[in-house]
Specification:
It holds the Pfam family Fer2_BFD. The protein is mainly alpha-helical. Helix content is 60%, strand content 8%. The protein has helices at 11-20, 25-31, 42-62; strands at 2-4, 9-10.
C-alpha cells in the first residue's frame, strides 16, 4: 500500500527506513531521499513509524 502518493513511498519502504533512521517522518522521508509535498500522509506515516519501532523494541527484548 502507498503511504505517500506524491513520493510513491510504500508502507514497506517506510517500515524498513524506520528501522534504520531514528527521526520523525520528515527525517525518514529525507533518509529515503524524499521530502513531504502535500503533507497529507504525515500523520499516517508517523503512526507507522511508531508501530514499527515499538515492534522492533519488543522483538529485541524478547530475544
Amino acid at each position: 500500500m502507498y503511504v505517500c502518493i506524491c513520493n510513491a513511498i510504500r508502507e514497506t519502504d517506510l517500515r524498513c527506513a524506520a528501522r534504520r533512521c531514528p527521526g520523525d517522518a520528515d527525517a525518514v522521508y529525507a533518509f529515503l531521499g524524499k521530502r513531504p509535498q502535500c503533507a497529507q500522509c504525515l500523520d499516517d506515516a508517523a503512526e507507522i513509524l511508531i508501530e514499527e519501532r515499538e515492534g522492533c523494541c519488543h522483538q529485541a527484548i524478547a530475544a
